[in-house]
Design brief:
homodimer; about 425 residues; alpha/beta; Rossmann fold; 7-stranded mixed sheet; 4-stranded parallel sheet
Chain lengths: ~425, ~425
């Protein structure tokens, strides 16, 4: 192994989670320790901050604040959704990145995000290889969607799943206090993969969860849906709890949120439709059909930023993933993503492995069909066994005046 | 003082909270200890359960489960919104109550709820006095709205306020990760009183809360609102966080949720309009005006049932209020509500006092005008000083498999 001397930069990309900052803490803590790394930079708003030469000098941050990043939700450095062009079509951004890497002697690049971000990471990695600029590039997974390929699970998922499971149990109790019918439709994030919606089944496992769960993995059929709800309604004295992914679609590929919702449907820069309103559409439809009280509840941003309800397991693993990324890079690895590997055995243990960025970029891992029941309305014990270990342990941010004390970074811009 | 021997019944009424079951635990624990009380009953669905002779024998419950009620959200016995008629107009329900009280030798009646429930309690109390049936009747306050008269604050408020404050801080961090404009409108429960919406100012006090807060105490003016948002938008690079009460109205008395919302507006049995959609209406309007991304977030049921985020202070006070109700009744008091009295001094201390049910029934306590800033868009330090002590301490339900272990009552129906 050759020792590569130079500086390191870390960026956060895509939607925030409760633990993406914990990975940042892991990267910073480990990188600041390494002799071969002189300066550690944190990019403002991911790749955009690098292109614009806007990044922070992490060595100037108080170690106590870096420690607090572990329990601080959202993306402390700022995030971005920025799609790099195909380098064969437009090389502008790549030339600029090379220029900045050279100017700041950046030899270590760590990028933390979902599949779009791993695509960015992969493109930068391949470009640097092509032009012969020596640089170690490691991706770090992150997504509440849990849809990254080649990793047992993703940092951020366990915390979002814990929040969703616990909140669902609480809503279950709240929604049945009156002796009158009440249908409650919970809407959970997840465009194409239903992992997070599936986490509501952990509440059902404890006897206080949805009667029916609809994931985007299964084509949604409104008539089936209504008859399934009616069956539960009659069996349960009018009490029905339903969980749906925001991304459920009918057989023509139309989002259910588009059925009657008048919310604007914008496209973001990756071409994803801006979703919302699925639960409202369904609650309104059920109200028409069953003439009873219905309520649509969207977990909205809360499900991805509720650090007060994060999984301690998730926080710890995310931190270690950050440390591992640096260790792997220093040891000579490049062009890979750090992935989680669950060890065999009765007790949950999570180790690390490396996967090619190309295998992760833009791929999506969905909930296996065999973990969804035959009717497509619930999860099997296999899913419970998979997900339950990921939500263990309560991580609470330290408190000040009874309110969370989140990290406060100085964010001093690096200069050259 | 005369010792009154007989049985006791306790009922829960109105919307649930995170701590109404803690008061139940207090009442049950204390009532089961008292020699003068033979049987302790828990009414299913409040007054309705008494009318229908449907109540549970609490002595058959496991003491461990009664203890778990302290951290179990929602109304474990079931709640009700049932308005008793004016006894001079229709005495049917009252005669039936007297019949049931006599049949089961009920001499102690404890009723836990908001101002509508204190009205019920007051009517029953006055009727029993009129007909000369000896019975001690004590009301217990409960409401996330914090709008009961004659008490410093209400059980349930501190926990809801803690949830709202912490969640607001988390959303604040999440909503500003991209370097693009984003307006976030948070909708908080509160028909006529803005106490809970005001709790978002605790997040602002910690530097991570709304820029603008709108309470129902102040007439809402759409033009003012838009210019106030525009001013913040320009000052803060397009980042704006706004908190609104569901119950804000314009000068004609029209709810803002009615402006453009197509959500059904039903009336419940107390004639309250079913609210919802205020944040959506405002977010849509701001999107039109400012052509930027907006997001409406409704805390919905989550804010009143999030036991995982309850205030330990609130849980403990609610329990003690339950104990006190029994002690007062046994000591000879009737026709009163147990109220909180804040002691003078630099340290927060909360004691108890008694207030006449008549003074509480149907009265509403609003946020004082002098605690709202001149512009009507935020709270003063007086409010912070009032509310901050109420959210102190984290109460976490005991866990089992990493998920809350809520109380499981046997609910064995009492028979005669």
């Amino acid at each position: 192994m050759s020792v590569l001397k130079g500086n390191a930069i870390f960026g956060q990309s895509g939607g925030p989670t409760s633990v993406i900052n914990s990975s940042a803490a892991g990267v910073f803590t480990e990188a600041l320790k390494q002799d071969c790394i002189s300066e550690v930079f944190g990019a403002a708003h991911g790749i955009k901050g690098i292109l614009e030469e806007k990044f922070y000098d992490i060595s100037l941050e108080d170690p106590k604040e870096i420690e607090l990043l572990k329990t601080t939700p959202s993306s402390a450095l700022g995030s971005v959704r920025y799609k790099l062009a195909d380098p064969d079509v437009d090389g502008t951004d790549y030339k600029r990145l090379l220029e900045v890497f050279k100017k700041y002697d950046i030899r270590y690049f760590f990028y933390n995000g979902g599949n779009d971000s791993m695509d960015t990471c992969n493109k930068v990695s391949k470009y640097m290889q092509k032009v012969g600029y020596e640089c170690r590039i490691i991706g770090l997974p992150k997504t509440i969607d849990n849809d990254l390929a080649e990793t047992d699970h993703c940092p951020g998922y366990g915390s979002a799943a814990r929040y969703v499971a616990i909140s669902t149990m609480e809503v279950y109790h709240d929604a049945r206090v009156y002796d009158t019918p009440m249908i409650c439709v919970l809407e959970v994030m997840g465009r194409n993969a239903g992992w997070l919606t599936a986490a509501t089944s952990l509440a059902s496992y404890k006897g206080a969860g949805p009667d029916l769960i609809y994931l985007p993995e299964i084509v949604f059929d409104m008539d089936n849906f209504i008859s399934q709800v009616k069956a539960v309604y009659e069996k349960n004295n009018g009490k029905v709890i339903i969980a749906v992914s925001e991304g459920i679609k009918d057989k023509s590929g139309k989002y259910i949120s588009e059925y009657g919702s008048d919310l604007a449907k914008e496209k973001d820069s990756f071409g994803h439709a801006q979703l919302g309103g699925t639960a409202q559409v369904l609650a309104a439809r059920l109200k028409d059909e069953l003439k009873c009280k219905t309520r649509a509840i969207e977990f909205s941003l809360l499900q991805r930023c509720a650090a007060h309800c994060a999984s301690a397991t998730d926080v710890e693993e995310a931190f270690k993933a950050g440390e591992m990324a640096v260790k792997y890079a220093v040891s000579g690895i490049t062009d890979h993503m750090v992935a989680y590997e669950r060890e065999q055995g009765p007790e949950y243990k999570c180790g690390f492995k490396l996967v090619n960025l190309s295998a992760v970029a833009n791929a999506e891992k969905k909930v296996p069909r065999e973990w969804i029941n035959k009717e497509g309305t619930g999860l099997t014990q296999d899913f419970i066994d998979y997900a339950l270990p990921l939500i263990q342990g309560a991580s609470s941010p330290p408190m000040e005046d009874g309110l969370p004390r989140f990290a406060r970074l100085k964010k001093v811009l690096a200069t050259k």
